[in-house]
Amino acid sequence: MSTNSLPSKQSQVRASDAEREAVVRVIQQAGAEGRLTLAETEERLAGIYAARFRNELSTFTEDLPSESRRPGPRWPPPYRGSRMT
């Protein structure tokens, strides 16, 4: 194995199983929300499990909204006045 084919230590860090699982949860949620087709979800999941480096994982979610920008459920519902008649 030549040293030229090894990634530089500054640019690439190996991904952990926990990091892969965190990205898997994002992809599964996006699939459940209809943001990805079943085929896209399966393709991305396969790629996530094959990824070796952290920077590879970010490519699977870069076209999805971040958690902070996703609209969440509106609970409790907004107050609309008294319903007593």
As a whole number of angstroms, the C-alpha radius of gyration is 20 Å
Task: Tell me the total number of β-strands.
Answer: 0
Q: Which sequence of SSEs, written as H and E, runs from N to C?
A: HHH
Approximately how much helix is present in the residues?
40-55%
Say what oligomer this is. Answer: single chain
Mean pLDDT: 82
Q: Which term fits the overall shape?
A: elongated
Terminal CA distance reads 81 Å
* DSSP helical segment count: 3
Largest sheet: none
What class would the helix/strand composition place it in?
Answer: mainly alpha
Structure characterization notes:
The termini are far apart. The protein has 85 residues and is an all-alpha fold. The mean pLDDT is 82. The protein has helices at 17-32, 38-50, 54-58. The chain has a domain at 13-65.
List keywords for this structure.
mainly alpha; 40% helix
Task: Provide the fold topology.
Layout: H1 17-32, H2 38-50, H3 54-58
At a glance:
Helix content is 40%, strand content 0%.
